[in-house]
Design goal:
The complex is a heterodimer of chains A (355) and B (86). Chain A has one helix and 28 strands. Chain A is globular, with a radius of gyration of 19 Å. Chain A has one helix spanning 124-127, and strands at residues 2-8, 11-17, 24-29, 35-40, 47-53, 57-63, 71-72, 88-94, 101-106, 109-113, 121-122, 143-150, 153-162, 165-169, 177-178, 201-206, 214-218, 221-225, 233-234, 243-248, 257-262, 277-280, 288-290, 308-311, 318-322, 328-331, 339-342, 348-354. Chain B has a five-stranded mixed β-sheet, covered by helices on one side. In chain B, 29% of the residues are buried. Classes of the chains: A mainly beta (355), B alpha+beta (86).
Chain lengths: 355, 86
């Protein structure tokens, strides 16, 4: 059985089911609240969720039983008495060290927990990065939305910020450098300096079987890096649009990636009024449309950056994505065929698949 | 002492008691004292800058107030979420 931890505009949902079949709602938590992101840490079984109340602000919560009591995590705040306040937490990612987790948020901040998510500390290296005053918020704010670890090496981290580009660390987050060479922002003038920092990265992932390889969905562009995020090559040719938000991959195949194109930045719905996932198995040289079982007419869906996840690998790779329409689709055969896992949910903000 | 009155989740965070009395000369001082007395409320009414969250309203004796509104010993301050959302 697969569990899907789904963050929505109106609460957290735990769905249970088998790939290729409709899922059942096992639990709903935080009714009425915006759950920006939620996941189950497979190491501990603990479920963590980030909520943003328009009244009370952003919080991190954790529990061992989604249907039971949730505890509010401590330390998820910017320095007291400063000029900035935490606006939203976009993502949580397990670290490589035991009990370590990372959380990313707005305004371009990273937090680290060493006790499984009960308490958190602000990453000072990124917070005090000298270029910070040049960072620009994207449409969703100055969001740190991607946190990418290196399998087996807790010192090597990559994060991505919209719109402040990719940041790389090789000392566990004590210091950071940019990783933006090759990115071509079409929304900036052509003579923009090469060290421009206002780069609107939408999502990055690392291929765990070949950690120096990474994939990126950019704000107009799909890219691959073969040098751990230092330089990037455009691999968007062959897609109906190179605009989109989410990204997934098959952890067993470092040449694989999946994107869900949207028409354009000015029209953020699936192209040609149909829903198709695009798959590459040759590191972006070619793309194949995967739409069998997905809506193929009168479908104007928007899929957000945290709303696409996977479980397993190879021929048994499971893929799941949710849309702001409240539809959630799944595939149990690496994207060859799809079906509705759930319908009529609130707008889906995040999806995390777990066994 | 001025009295601050809470409802809903704020009341629960404050030991499930709605009324709390503190020595304070402004609404901001009153709310800071409330947070010190009940650390679980940290960040819920005032953000990390110490600023009253945008969608929280304070009323002093029934009149809309602000963080710097003066309060006297007999004043009552209601803390209410703004009507907002979608």
């Amino acid at each position: 059985m697969t569990k899907l931890i789904v963050g929505t505009r109106k609460g957290l949902f735990v769905l249970e089911g088998e790939p290729g079949e409709p899922f059942e709602v096992a639990t709903r938590a935080f009714p009425g609240e915006t759950v920006d992101y939620a996941l189950r840490d497979t190491r501990s079984g603990r479920i963590l969720a980030t909520t943003t109340s328009p009244i009370y602000g952003p919080k991190v919560w954790y529990t061992d039983d989604a249907a039971g009591e949730w505890e509010q995590a401590e330390g998820v705040a910017l320095p007291e008495g400063g000029d900035a306040a935490l606006q939203r937490l976009w993502v949580i990612a397990p670290g490589e060290a035991e009990g370590t987790l990372y959380a990313g948020g707005d305004p371009g901040v990273l937090f680290e927990s060493r006790d499984g998510g009960a308490s958190w500390e602000l990453n000072r290296g990124l917070w005090e990065e000298p270029s910070r005053d040049r960072w620009q918020p994207g449409g969703g704010g100055l969001c740190l939305h991607s946190i990418v670890t290196w399998p087996g090496d807790p010192d090597r981290l990559a994060v991505a910020i919209s719109a402040a580009g990719v940041w790389l660390s090789e000392d566990g987050g004590a210091s950071w450098r940019t990783g933006n060479e090759g990115l071509a922002p079409r929304y900036l003038p052509e003579d923009t300096p090469p060290d421009e920092i206002g780069l609107c990265v939408h999502r990055i992932h690392r291929a765990p079987a070949r950690p120096e390889r990474m994939f990126m969905q950019f704000h107009g562009g799909v890219y691959r890096s073969d040098d751990a995020g230092q330089t990037w090559t455009d691999i968007g040719a062959g897609l109906p649009s190179d605009f989109g938000f989410p990204l997934a991959l098959d952890p067993g195949d470092p040449d694989s990636a999946y994107v869900i194109p949207l028409t354009a930045d000015v029209d953020r719905v699936t192209p040609d009024s149909r829903v198709r996932v695009y798959e590459t198995r040759d590191a972006g040289v070619s793309w194949t449309a995967r739409g069998d079982g997905l809506p193929q007419e009168h479908a104007y869906l928007t899929i957000l950056r945290e709303a696409f996840d996977w479980g397993g690998e190879g021929e048994g790779l499971e893929l799941y994505f949710g849309a702001t329409s409240g539809d959630l689709f799944g595939s149990g055969d690496a994207g060859a065929t799809w079906s509705a896992a759930a319908t009529r949910l609130p707008p889906v903000l995040s999806v995390a698949a777990t066994a | 002492m001025a009295v601050v009155r809470l409802r809903g989740p704020l009341k629960q965070l404050a030991g499930d008691q709605s009324e709390h009395a503190f020595e304070a000369s402004t609404v901001g001082e009153l709310l800071s004292a409330l947070e010190r007395e009940h650390p679980a409320m940290d960040g819920w009414i005032l953000d990390e800058r110490g600023v009253l969250r945008r969608h929280i309203n304070v009323f002093v004796n029934g009149e809309m107030g602000a963080q710097d509104t003066a309060v006297d010993a007999d004043d009552r301050v209601d803390v209410l979420p703004a009507i907002s959302g979608g």
